Amino acid sequence: MFHRSLHKIYSIYIHHFSTTSSPPTQPHFMVNYLTTTLNLSKPDAIFVTSKIHHLKSPKNPQSVINFLTTYNLSTPQIISLILTHPHILLRNVDKTLKPKFNVLSELGFSVQDLVTVITRDPNLLLRSLDTAIVPTINLLMKVLGSKEKIVKAVLRSHWPFYGKSFRTNVELLKRYGVCNKDIERLILRNPRLVTQSPVRLEEKLVEVEQEFGISPGSSMFSYGLSAFCSMNKLNLRRKFEVFKGFGWCEADVLAVVKSQPLCLTHSEERLRRGLSFFMGELGYTSEWLSSRGSLLMYSLEKRVKPRYRVYVVLKEKGLMARELHTLMCYSEADFVKNVVQRHREELPDHLYDSMIKIIDR
Question: Helix 42-51 vs helix 29-37: angle between axes, to the nearest 10 degrees?
Answer without folding.
Answer: 130
